[in-house]
Specification:
Shape: globular
Strand content: 15-25%
Distance between the termini: 49 Å
Radius of gyration: 23 Å
Number of helices: 20
Structural class: alpha/beta
Largest sheet: 6 strands, parallel
Amino acid sequence: MELITRSEPVVVFVTPPVTKPSEPNVSGLAAARLLQIMGVEASAVDASIGWYRHTLQAGPLRARIDAADPDISTRRSLERHVASVTDAPPTLRRPEVYATRKLYSSAIAHLDGALKLASTGHTGVRLHVADVEFSGLRLESRDALRAVAERPGPFDAYYEEILIPELRARGATHVGVSLTFQNQSAAAARLGYLLAQNLPEVRRLLGGPLVACWNDTGQSLSGGFFDLFHEVSPGHDADVLALAAKLGKPAGALPSGPRTLSLDAVPWDAYLSPVPIVPLALGRGCYWAKCTFCPDYIYARHRACPPDTLESVIEAVCERFPGGAMLHLTDAALPPKHLDHIAKTIVEMGAPLKWHGFVRPERKFTDPAFVERMAAGGCAMLQVGIESAAPRLLDMMEKGVDLECMKEMLRRTRAVGIRNQIYLLFGMPTETDLEREQTLDMVEDCEDAISDVNLSILNLPRKSPMQERPADFGITEILPFGEATDLSLYDDFRCGDRHPRLEARRWIAARMEKSPAVKAITGGLRAPFKANHACFLPHR
């Protein structure tokens, strides 16, 4: 690549592996877009999708098969994995694969098999969709991440052969590593180390939503792997504006539009989805901000973007993708009135768009006219935060909704063709088996209205009301998840001599997972992409 030199600062934001390869992650791309608006020369690289493409090349994968010298049956199986991920287009980009859960699950098995094959060259490493495991290491401490940073691993070939030469060619003076998920932290640490070795003159920055969470839960942003970077900040819009000012571009007012990316900034044909998925946030924060198991109350209440700015983004997406696209609305919870506006806008424009996102159970979703407008206006799926059907637990969580409202909402939305992916949360403080059974009863009663179930066990979020006021919720002891977990965002807990998380895990295995209704809903689906692909799959 030709080396480009600049007298002005050049900022390149990098999204490190490993994220789901279904769509771009918006954080670093949005930061680059904001700096561009401020007059800074800025761009972004989705190094996560770049790493997938580099790692899942046919030649190296087939060489690994040859090196393993497997028996004929195993060789054929491995070759099917390789063909699925290297065909043009790859299997998971073909719309017909999403027509049945069986076809889709087979394609997921091939992707996982190819990643497992790619792992064989790295001792103690197992690559997964959107995750990487390092044997014997829990990557939730600054010291563990520093150790991984200095260890050659599965990201090196892509970094050294592709990414670092690209950063050099762009003339980067500043590289901002944008972290959203804990699963990216190992790759971010290794990138910081290799940048120091290969581009020592470049200023290394670390930020993003995960760094913001560490900061907001009281973690120090120094020591260990943080010291691989010259500057570490939460990466809020205000931090990006401060960076612009440091680079000689005094910031004006923040743009008022949705938080999204420049549509020409990413390689759309690389993502594993049947149509482009465009991430879009209407605002920041949560409009409810009362749930006692969640720390969102510490942030400003949700404020959505002005309607005209949303309409301009929708129009731009239509122009860029005339064959259709899926909007992934990434807000923590989407207010019904804003969904109504999106649906009306899509109908009025005749836009070939679908959308999905998180919602709270609300009485508005039981209004037949409202849900019909949503369905007509592109709503493909709602990710519904049910959590529990036990009245006492709903009150304790301050969900602000009752069981009958939730059930009617599910039935009304499904009746107009909207998929419902429900989120259930077990292992709450003082939760009993009877209360778990109430939730299972609700699932069985609403089986026909539920498209997918996402089961979780409560990890107690730091800075949540439950963690800040444990006695109010029957929590008698709060414990870290192991000794070296200073960068964990969660804690374990006890309620007297009871361990609700462990009780819930046993109950789920004994009851929930054996329920005929739950089995009918999930249907043996392999779904590491979760909502990112569930919005395309058939109801059953």
